[in-house]
Specification:
Layout (H helix, E strand, L loop, with lengths): L1 H16 L30 E3 L3 E8 L3 E10 L7 E6 L4 E4 L10 E9 L5 E11 L5 E11 L3
Parallel strand pairs: 2-8
Antiparallel strand pairs: 1-3, 3-6, 4-7, 5-6, 7-8
């Protein structure tokens, strides 16, 4: 009888330590509100409102770095959570707020473009993934890199 209780106790402890699908989700996974007919209720979602989604840095000399901050506001009704920001090439590095952006709050996506070994017209994209519908937003950096003299 003692062995039976011991095995039950061990199995209970092991079961408690296992991760379930819901416990392995991070804070970026939230419930998307649905209407009765199964459609997404877009009125209850966070929304990006960028001041602009394209920055033209003009003409720069090869080797220069360009920094820019894309300002936005969460115009939705629930916190906006950015799960990732990735650039189209390694020469462009974005940083984003890791904490939720409250409804009505403003934040920035900072981007640094390094023109080392680049030449001519450049267009770089930054793809933001968030709990919005659609779940991606693309930002653009444009300009021309001139040969260093």
């Amino acid at each position: 009888m003692k062995k039976f209780i011991f095995y039950i106790l061990v199995l209970s402890v092991m079961a408690c330590g296992k991760k379930t699908a819901s416990s392995s989700l991070n804070s970026a996974a939230i419930d998307i509100p649905m209407t009765a007919d199964g459609k997404v209720d877009t009125l209850k979602l966070p929304k990006f409102a960028f001041q602009n989604d394209t920055y033209d840095f003009g003409k720069i000399t090869q080797g220069e770095k360009v920094s820019y901050s894309f300002n936005f506001k969460n115009t939705g009704y629930v916190p906006l959570i950015i799960s990732s920001a990735s650039a189209s090439c390694g020469c462009t590095v974005p940083t984003f707020p890791e904490e939720p952006i409250a409804p009505g709050a403003e934040a920035t996506i900072a981007v640094v473009f390094n023109s080392e070994n680049k030449m001519g017209l450049q267009t770089k994209t930054i793809t933001i993934v968030a709990n919005t519908v659609p779940n991606t937003k693309v930002l653009y950096l444009r300009g021309e890199v001139l040969e260093a003299k």
